[in-house]
Amino acid sequence: MKFKKSMFCLLSVAAMALPLVSCNNAPASSAATSSAASSAASSAAVSSTVVPSKKVSLTMSVLHNSDQTMMKFGTKNVPYNAADGETYNAGDFKPVWKQVQKNLNLEIDDVTDSVTLSSIDSSFQAFQALGFKTQDGKQLNLLQGNASSIVEEGTANGTILDLKPYMDQGKLPNLKRFLEENPVVAKSIIANGGQYFYAPYFDGYNDIEKMLMLRKDFVEKLLDGEYIASKYDTETTINTSYTRFNAAAVDQDVDVLNEAGNGSEKIHKKYVAGQDIVTLQNGLTTKNGQNLVKALREYIDTTYNHAYGTKRSELFIGRKAAYNMDELVALFRAAKANPKLLTGKADGVIYPLTPREQTNDRTTDLFNFMINMGVRGINGRQTYFYVGNDGNLVDTRSQEAFVTALGKMHDLYSEGLILPNFDVKGADGVTDSTKWSTDLFQKKDADAATKARGLAIYDYCQTQTAFNWQNTGMELVPVMPAGYAWNGTNETKFVESWRGVKTSGWFITDATKNDADKLERALLLVDYFYGAEGNKLMSYGPAAWINGTTKYMGKDIPKLSDACLSEFAQLGKYNYTNYYRQFLGGTLAVGYVKEQGMEYQVTNPTARNELDKLENALAYNVIKHPNASMNNTADHMLDQLPSSIAFTAAESSSISETMADLGGLFSTSKGKVNVMTDVVKNGFGARDGKDAKYVYTDAASFTNWVKSTLKSDEHLRIINTAYHRMGFYN
To answer: pLDDT at residue 428 above 80?
Structure first.
């Protein structure tokens, strides 16, 4: 994998001159191995921090989303015979947190199990109601929360410690240096009064986050080799609703990644009016699998002047990907109409596009797919907003491109190209599951009972392509984004789903400053995970889970040990987040930047090969993407938005009291609702009585409803004021 110059990753912490933490009680080898990039350490690094000899106890609460993802083991996943030779039982601290206490001469009083465990937010609210104390009155020192809740609580009630004075005093050298090196982050987390109330969490940083993935093996079956009509299905037909979206005619060069992976080359694309693939397919007398595939194959040969030869799948997958939205829809149709070919079963069925699960937080990933139709703001850090050419925020929900794309999503749904009733349990008609990715990708193709299959999903690469290990022969791989005329003329590629500050982190309670020893140790702990040693521990685990180094993005990083990889496969079932969180206690949403080098090592090799091409395309500007710079004034399309906006109390009240429906009907949270689901399934037509709030009858009235009834225009005015006040592009 080529080194991505534009990317910042904490695997290069030494290059940022972050200090190492010297731990009196750490293993003898820790000082020598604490930084994967120690050989590149800057001479400007601040002095090492020495851990005090006095052991101190901190009362803490840390979790992800259940009793399996806390600092301690619950009743599941035990006994755990771990890579370090220890056996862990219920109530024991997990390896990462056991090592943290040893390294920092710390004793953790874990009170996590006394609160609601469904989410970080519910835990925060439960403790907030108790004044950040336990039921028996014990004062908490460190816990997590969502950024907006933390800032609001700290500003309004003064119950959360402002970290800035301690940065100025040199008590948080790692965190301070990180914020100085990354001003976009600093501006993103600062409160109105200049306070830093929390240390932010990053699920990776300055890299692509979610992406489209396709079953490479299915695409190859449909498109590669010579055309043999008898291979393809004739029984299954498509009733078309989707009409041409991209340009009526195209005659241009398209940039793709070169073979060496270190730059771009061009492929010429040309079709005339009436010869775009959607119009051609819509004009077929019989839209069955055989005819839809034949039309797509011939179109690829003609439009790209045989640039792909008999490997037509490379239009969609690999370094030469140059497809646009219409061509992708044509592929979806070809797959939908060829269930026997792709599933090997006479009664098989293909659902081309599906979300991971039926819950609202997962179904909203379907809408990320609209980036392929030129919709910005859906994939960004500040959902529904992006920076316009003038430096002001734009609410995508009031834009013509958004409404057009949403209508096109309904057309896809009407054709059966999106999983029917994707927000309802048992939607696939085959099982009563709610986890579509498990049903449609993980279950083995060869199993007689497996009749429904998926082709594409928009999600995280490692966790979803892990199904390749469990379904022999399956090759789910990440692909380049679709080309779109972002500049108004030629088709180019752009990614907006980009890793930045997540919406959560952890904080120190203000009451902690009443005990000097506890405050000192709490500050040390917060700073620790922003240093090289702490980051390595939280990202990769203790020494037994590491064996030497390997290369990632041009840097030496910790190499996962054979014992770690074996546990990852057997215990984590190839899902690294489940494995690290449930067994090691690592990669939790505390203040730190999760290294992607660990995730990269446990990505399925077939998918990793394609991920390398995608990353190189990003590195060499074949794909444009946001960045962490504050100097994008010439091209605000590259601006990385903050994950949270610091509103005044009056602004927050106005939003919550008069614009509640705007957030409530466009929610991306589990257990909530999103009106886009309604439109994808039902279109813009008039709603019946049970949908009383959805008072729109067509695309135009939908836009007016969003702007006037839901008050998106007023909300946009408020958010722009706050955004500029934070120091972004005044």
So the answer is: no
C-alpha span between 282 and 279 (Å, rounded): 5
Distance CA 720, CA 730 (A): 10
Residue 383 in this model has a pLDDT that exceeds 90: no
Q: What is the CATH number of domain 10-46+54-207+502-602?
A: 3.40.190.10
Angle between helices 649-658 and 712-725 (to 10 degrees): 160
Written as one string, the DSSP assignment of 109-143 is: EE-GGGS--S-HHHHHHHHHHTTSB-TT-PBP-EE
Report the phi/psi class of residue 391: left, alpha or beta, with left for phi > 0 and alpha for psi in -120 to 50: left
**Is 598:540 a contact under the CB 8 Å cutoff?**
yes
In the three-class reduction of DSSP (H, G, I as helix; E, B as strand; rest coil), residue 698 is classed as coil
Cα 418 from Cα 566, distance rounded (Å): 36
> Would you give the distance in Å from CA 381 to the centre of its chain?
10
Flag whether pLDDT at 116 surpasses 80. Answer: no
Which amino acid is residue 692, in one-letter code?
Answer: A
Beta-strand relationship, 452-460 and 349-353 = parallel
Mean pLDDT score of the chain? 88
pTM equals 0.86
User: Once rounded to an integer, what is the mean pLDDT over residues 151-172?
Assistant: 95
What confidence score (pLDDT) does residue 633 get?
Answer: 80
Exposed e or buried b per residue across 350-389, where buried means at least 16 C-beta atoms within 10 angstroms of its C-beta: bbbbbbbbbbbbbbbbbbbbbbbbbbbbbbbbbbbbbbee
Sign, CA torsion 393/398/399/404: positive
Q: Which of 291, 286, 311, 292 is nearest to 301 (CA)?
A: 311
Q: What angle do CA 117, 669, 715 make, to 5 degrees?
A: 130
Range in 262-271, 299-308, 504-513, 545-554 with the lowest mean pLDDT: 545-554
529 vs 527: CA distance, rounded Å:
6
3-state secondary structure of 376: coil
Task: Give the position of tokens 């939790």.
Answer: 588
Q: Which residues pair with residue 80 across a beta bridge?
A: 88
391/632 Cα distance (integer angstroms): 9
- The mean pLDDT of 484-488, rounded to a whole number, is 92
Helix then strand then coil, in percent of the chain rounded to 5, is 40, 15, 45
Model confidence at 43, pLDDT cuts 50, 70, 90, reads very low
**Residue from 62, 151, 154, 43 nearest 100 by CA:** 62
Would you say residue 322 has pLDDT above 70? yes
Share above pLDDT 90 across residues of the chain, in percent, rounded to a whole number: 69
Judge whether 277 and 304 are in contact, CB under 8 Å: no
Q: C-alpha 107: how far from its chain's center?
A: 34
| Cis amide linkage into residue 173, ω under 30° from 0 | no
| Angle separating helix axes 120-129 and 147-157, nearest 10 degrees | 20
Structure confidence at residue 18 (pLDDT) = 33
